[in-house]
Amino acid sequence: MNQIALITGGGGGIGGAVARRMAAAGIAVVIADFDGAAAAKIKDEIVESGGKADALAVDVTVPRELKAVVAEVARQFGRIDILANIAGGSAYAKRLEELTWAEWKEVMDANLKGTFLMCREVAPIMQRQKSGRIINTASNYGVTGSALRTPYAAAKAGIITFTKSLALELAPDGVLANTVAPGPTDTPRVMEKESAEARRRRWWPNIPLGRTAVPEDLAEMYYFLTTPESAAMTGQTFHVNGGVVMP
Amino acid sequence: MRLEDKVAVITGAAQGIGRAVALGMGREGAKVVVADLQAEKAQSVANELRGRGTGALAVEVDVANEASVKRMAKSAFDRFGRVDILVNVAGIYYPKASVVDLTEEDWDRTIDINVGSNFLCCREFVPAMRAQKSGRILSLASGIGHYGMRQFSHYAASKAAVMGFVKALAREVGPDGITVNAICPGSANTAMPRRHRSEEEVMARLRSTPLPHVLEPEDIAGPILFLASDAAAYITGQSYNINSGSYMF
Questions:
Q1: Which residues of B lie inside 8 Å of A (Cβ-Cβ)?
Q2: Which of A93, A100, A176, B4 matches a 20 to 30 Å C-alpha distance to A72?
Q3: A190 three-class SS
Q4: What pLDDT is stored for residue A87 in this prediction?
């Protein structure tokens, strides 16, 4: 029987790569994304190459929407083995005094609150199953901070410690929760804002492995955290960043 | 198989975590150098590997002895022609002594075996990895290197030093396509903790983790196999914890 994975942000760069990697390993993936068309595109790609996938549009900051999505997945498949919370991002690069309360809330909600709401919805299902893997997404900025990204850094730091607390709560039921912390990654979303050449100049000299990440680099870690080989790892933060940050 | 045709050198491979890593690497297609101070036990692991069709060589080594480490490296290169993966597992977790009672001799011994070994072994294999523009180095640290432990100041210091060494080396060799990472196990079901704890104490400790999962050597070997594989090409300078949730850093 296929394992079932629910992947938020599955229509994006990292989320899409994670969906493809898990599907290639025989996991049935439900790709949930704010951008329903992007989710459908990844789904079609996976199905064409022989994988099992479904796509759904969801705003993870709206409890009503995500409740409906989780209920639908649970109804359709009868279980959820893997939850990868990848939806999120840093929408603004602004000095603190220029940030509005609404902007602060938007970034905190898209990253931290969305993660909380999804976990709250899916965790009881995994607890009943006595198994499950939750993989949340932070950032190296959640450890180092980042000028002009105060709400993003705060939200990502929040995700790291939220996940540790969640891991302790779910451990007695055999449900694992971990965080993946990507470093600078070449996703379509960031490449829209910054050219490959500019990114190369800005990042490469500061990264021990001499390049920025491609989404597939991250996807391998998310997949690893669904396998029996990672059965003893919970509450941890796994930095995949070419060595740009070594906490 | 994820490590087809790779050559792996594993120190401390005669028992416990090192043995599990050696068998796991063999299963994934690597040829394995089983290096250990305990020559007979190392030979028996190598025999087990060969019995499964894996190319294996047992080498006696004292990882805190420069000449001995050089001999081990020469044996590995003579036999297999290259080395792709180095896993530094060899280490000691005794004696148990408070700081005021710890002898200089025991301090030196722990630091030399647990972290000096990393320096001596990496120094032998890094040049060849640089030349081939690829390599994986993995070192066993410990959660104790993060949170400390009373009566084990020497061990805690040595394992924190491993993490510092790993980060520095990762920066040095990253441009040559070599990754260097540390693994921090929690207390595992091996002979090591049984040196200074009763069987009851050991099992009680193993069962006290948040996750109801007794940490076995294979639990440590799995992530090491992942980090040694191509899938982990972008991970370097990290210290990953494997401890059934007993400690989160």
A1: 167, 170-171, 174-175, 177, 179, 209-213, 215, 219-220, 222-223, 225-226, 231-245, 248-249
A2: A176
A3: helix
A4: 97
Q: Which residues of A touch B212 (CB under 8 A)?
A: 171-172, 174
Strand partners, A100: none
Measured between beta carbons, the chain B residues lying within 8 angstroms of A221 are 232, 235
Average pLDDT over residues A220-226: 98
Give the residue with greater pLDDT, B193 vs A23. Answer: A23
In a domain, B15, yes or no: yes
Subunit contact B210:A171, Cβ cutoff 8 A: yes
- In chain A, what are the domains? 4-237 (3.40.50.720)
Based on the structure, what is the number of domains in chain B? 1
User: Which residues are within 8 A (CB) of B248 and not within 5 positions of it... i.e. 6 or more apart?
Assistant: A164, A167, A235, A236, A237, B241
* Domain assignment present for B19: yes
Q: State the pLDDT at residue B195.
A: 87
CATH of the domain at B176: 3.40.50.720
How far is Cα A159 from Cα A168, in angstroms, rounded to an integer? 14
Residue A1 predicted with pLDDT over 80: no
Residue B13 lies in a domain: yes
Q: What percent of chain B has pLDDT over 90?
A: 98
pTM of the model: 0.95
Using one digit for the tens of pLDDT, what is the confidence trace for B4-36?
999 999 999 999 999 999 999 999 999 999 999
Residue B198's pLDDT is: 94
Task: Provide the domain limits for residue B219.
Answer: 7-241
- Tens digits of residue pLDDT in A146-166: 999 999 999 999 999 999 999
CB atoms within 10 A of CB A119: 20
Q: What is the dihedral of CA A97, A99, A101, A103, to 10 degrees?
A: -170
| Shortest Cα distance, chain A CAs vs residue B30, angstroms | 18
Cβ-based contacts of A213 with chain B (< 8 Å)? 234
- Name the residue facing B223 among A208, A233, A239 (closest C-beta): A233
- Three-state DSSP class for A134? strand
Q: How far is CA A190 from the centre of its chain?
A: 16
Over residues B108-127, the pLDDT tens digits come to 999 999 999 999 999 999 99
